[in-house]
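Data availability (excerpt). The following record was deposited with the supplementary files.
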Amino acid sequence: MKKKDLITKWLDHEQLTREELKAFKNLDAYDSYEKISSNAKSFKAPKYNIEENLQDLKVSLTQEQRSIDTTKKFPINFLIRIAAIFILGIGTYFMAFYNSDTITNTIAGQKTSIELPDQSSVQLNALSSIRYKEKNWEDNRKIELEGEAYFKVAKGKTFDVHTSSGIISVLGTEFNVKQREHYFEVVCYEGLVSVTYNKNTIKLPAGSVFKVQNNNIVNTTTSLVKPDWINNLSSFHSTPYSYILKEFERQYNVTIIAKNIDQDKLFTGNFVHSNIETALQSITIPMRLKYKIDNNNITLYKE
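Predicted structure:
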């Protein structure tokens, strides 16, 4: 009998003849077949309770279905939330970008020039700042000013300059605005400006000066064609000495200590922004004062 047929007969548990059994035992893999047969006899199938197992299967299938449903819903809800956050974030970004203010500041001793979106120009004096909305300038022609600035407005252009003391409305003109503590001044050099102060509106033609000093309104004139500070010179006419000292501190970034000096006295004169010694002599000699420089501190005292 062939080897294959002999093994098949043995696996089918058919009775082998003496010759066939002898031939089977002489096979090289006889020991392995015997081990397989021995292990197979010891194997017992587990016992099953059909009713219990059927119930467990139903519970398992129900839980699995819920898990699948949740998995299906989660990505959709999650993606919706992510999309909403993204849209909100983009909207907020562009809203902030569109509505953000353009701000320019100067420090003590510094001046700077800015060009507005309509090609008008602004020159900013020391320790001053302007704020405006560049992105929607056509719809919001408003500038907020703190300190002092000289405006040269492009022909046919108009905007409002807002200060804590008043509002200046312009149309193609040149003018200077100074807003300091207890001091407000508007000088028109060309064209016409409209100044609103305490709900009253004043029209200033070229060469006119509107000044409020300690709540007192003064109307004067000027022959200048632009402010002196543009050329690094601070000029004053009948101005309290305390204002001169404050302006000096702004231009030279120093601290002035005035000992036993009447700072309410009126001063008419000027000082340069390029040489501190020359500037000090300009504001002390007319007032018969002496000075001492100690780093960034300057002490003024009587002769």
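Summary of structural features: The helical segments are 3-11, 18-25, 30-42, 50-99, 241-252, 276-284.
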